[in-house]
Amino acid sequence: MTAVALRGAIELGLLYALVTAGLFLSYRILNLADLTVDGSFTLGGAASIMVALTGHPWLGILAGVLTGALAGLVTAVMQTKLGIQPILAGILTMTGLYSINLRVMDGRASVNVIGKVTVFTPFQNALGDLGKLVLIALVGAVALGLLVLFLCTQVGLAVRATGDNERMVRSSSVNVDLMKTLGLVLANALVGLSGALLAQYQQSCDVGMGTGVVVIGLASLIIGEAVFGTLVYFCTKRQGVLTGAGCAVVGAVLYRLIIALVIQYNNAPALRFLHITASDMKLLSALIVVVAISYPALRSAAALRRKRARTQKQAKGGGS
């Protein structure tokens, strides 16, 4: 892999690490299946690009965070106040956001800021090719650091407890609906930040840029937990929110490195028969998620079959 391809994979990995961190908060901490992500990611990118076109790229990043948080708030209100199931609430918000994203982009399916100033411009002028990587790393470190600090506060602990045991938290006079709302707002704010940065990173935003993002984020989270999470637990025998943040970063970067390697070596004789292209990556991500989630059940089923086989063998041996 060339140095340029390696740097690009790391940059994209760090950008998508914010999505993975948002999914860590909703899926792992709150134990909620939030499908708003596909829409809030695009919404953050659309808001960022449109504000950047006016000459205020940093305000565009803030707009991406706020609009992402607003999307999370809508989903949370559907769940907590309207009694809609979490998965359906996310689907409804994601579906509605498609039209809203088009309106944000003035009815255009794609908008670009080529030739305009972005948040990356001064860093590229000062640091050259490393400018983008430095800015992404700084923003990611600040965002994830604030997330870890929040989850260690009293309110953050209440959010974590809500995901662990909602009944116990409710019996302790904690406003469970407020905790869920706060968690979903923060999760989608991180996703909106990721979309805002990515839009200015690639200098464009299209209405379909968020399709499949939730699957990519879950695949990255699972990879991170399998590699970084297992390593941390092996060394320390404990895991926490800091480990979760590390899993988000490591998993997202590894995911992008895997994609870069597959694309680069796609023409190798051993892989030529697969004909893997960049458009197949989301299918590959879905397969990774299916295998990782179903692995415990498959392992239990295999162990049960082996146990039955041993029992039948012993029964036949005793009968003879």
How would you describe this structure in keywords?
320 residues; two-stranded antiparallel sheet; 77% helix
Account of the protein in words:
This protein has twelve helices and two strands; from the N terminus they run ααααβαααααβααα. The protein has a domain at 3-207. The chain is globular and about 85 Å long. 77% of the residues lie in helices and 2% in strands. Helix 2 (37-52) runs parallel beside helix 4 (86-104) and helix 10 (213-236) crosses helix 12 (281-319). It has a two-stranded antiparallel ribbon. The model has no long low-confidence stretch (mean pLDDT 87). The termini are far apart. The chain has helices at 3-29, 37-52, 57-80, 86-104, 121-127, 131-151, 154-164, 166-171, 176-202, 213-236, 241-264, 281-319, and strands spanning 110-112, 204-206. With 320 residues, the protein is mainly alpha-helical. The longest helix has 39 residues, at 281-319.
Helix content: over 70%
List the total number of helices.
Answer: 12
Q: What is the topology, as strand order, of the major beta sheet? A: 1-2
Shape: globular
* Strand residues, percent: under 5%
- Stretches where pLDDT is under 50 for at least 5 consecutive residues are none
Distance between the termini: 62 Å
* Helix-strand topology string: HHHHEHHHHHEHHH
**Largest β-sheet summary:** 2 strands, antiparallel
Structural class: mainly alpha
Let me know the average pLDDT: 87
Would you report the number of β strands? 2
Rg, rounded, reads: 22 Å
